[in-house]
Design goal:
Blueprint (H helix, E strand, L loop, with lengths): L5 E7 L4 E6 L4 E5 H6 L4 H4 L17 E7 L3 E6 L7 E3 H9 L1 H17 L1
């Protein structure tokens, strides 16, 4: 199956949301905090980790700029200085499709860290 391609990519900075529409009709509103805490970068993903590293204190993070990477991805530059993740169209699509489950798992992990 071919990866859906984006038809629109729009940062709504005041809401801290990246809106991504795809050519299969899917449209996702991806919060900046979610994009930052689930970054594909080595800082967050490590090398072969099954779960991303737990990033805390990112509730108010925003995207400073979006830089194209060829015709297959974008690099998101966050206002906390993070700029090393390459978000492919497939990765963004996956984040959108799985956002509810990913955010629930992240919230559980945060609660676990706070109770330790």
């Amino acid at each position: 199956m071919e990866t859906p391609q984006p038809t629109e990519l729009r940062l709504e900075r005041s809401r801290r949301v990246l809106m991504v529409a795809f050519d299969d009709g899917q449209c996702f509103e991806l919060p900046c905090e979610y994009l930052r805490t689930h970054s594909p970068s080595a800082e967050v993903r490590g090398h072969g980790l099954s779960e991303p590293k737990l990033m805390t204190g990112k509730e108010n993070v925003n995207i400073e700029r979006i830089e194209p990477v060829g015709s297959y991805a974008v690099q998101l530059v966050f206002d906390d200085g993070h700029d090393s993740g390459i978000y492919s169209w497939g990765f963004l699509y996956d984040l959108g499709v799985n956002m509810e489950a990913n955010q629930a798992r992240y919230a559980d992990r945060l609660r676990g860290a706070e109770s330790n």
